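Exercise 7.
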Amino acid sequence: MSANSHLSDIVRNLREAQNILLATHVFPDGDALGSMLGFGEILEAMGKKVILYAEEPVSYLYDFLPCCQKVTQELPVAGEVDCAVALDCGDKYRLGKAMDELLDIHPFMVIDHHAGNKAFGDLRWVDGQMPSTGNMVYELTKALGVELSHKAAYCLYTAIVSDTGSFKYASTTPETFLVAGNLVAKGINPEDVAGKLFDNFTESRLKLLQQVLASLEIMADGSLGIITVTKDMYEATGSTSKDTETFINYPRSLASVKVAVFFKEAGETVSVSLRSKGSDYDVAEIAKNFGGGGHRNAAGFKVKNGDDLDKVKSDLLDILIPLLEG
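Solution. The predicted structure, written as tokens, is:
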């Protein structure tokens, strides 16, 4: 079955539906939120009633996105919506606490660019070659025959910039720049978006970064860079897990580093982010060993059930160090 085999069915269901719920993964990043908000604008332009659901309020990191105030933490009552769409969500468990209620909505459709997508929902359009889900929403908009508004273009441009690392990741293609150029032609100011995405630190976030950078470890002859955040660091700086977004880019930026790892402690859960450069190391395959997934150059996983940070770190290094030193 090809990745696009359900695209026509998704288009048909969206055209027929009047009340549509959009959702994304927990702790959404710029691609997830930009895609959901942009798609919501597109569907409303078609005359649809749209519910934008997220488990938590939009982080201050993304509260500049148009219409983010429309995001709700309230689920609709049974029968209130005709269909649901999950955007940028590679695993049903990433839907969060409302997973069961969301999956009770039929048809439940999935639009995602994670190559390791766990194939949930009734209809799926999954394309691991796409650099972002924002790119997929752009293509879906063309299939639906809708003219992009400035607000929708702003959200989709933000999604694409976020998930391509400002167009520097290997997933970036000539088509990526064509799409971005078309969005800029809608009046989007790249400097404005970049400033709001990347020049957005609070004092507590900067203090947290200071402590996280002090945790830096270099291993495997310089090819492995590791940073860590602990519960104590959050408490000492008055920060939260939302403040750690993009921190993984710091160890990745070291010239010698081929794989970067960010260990994040939170309660009885340890969350791990993995990044790699080029085509030599597929971190999505590494994440699969721990029940996670993602892309070749960007992946992650979570370990629960009380496993402590040292245990998770030791288990991962047992895989990474022989790989990098081999």
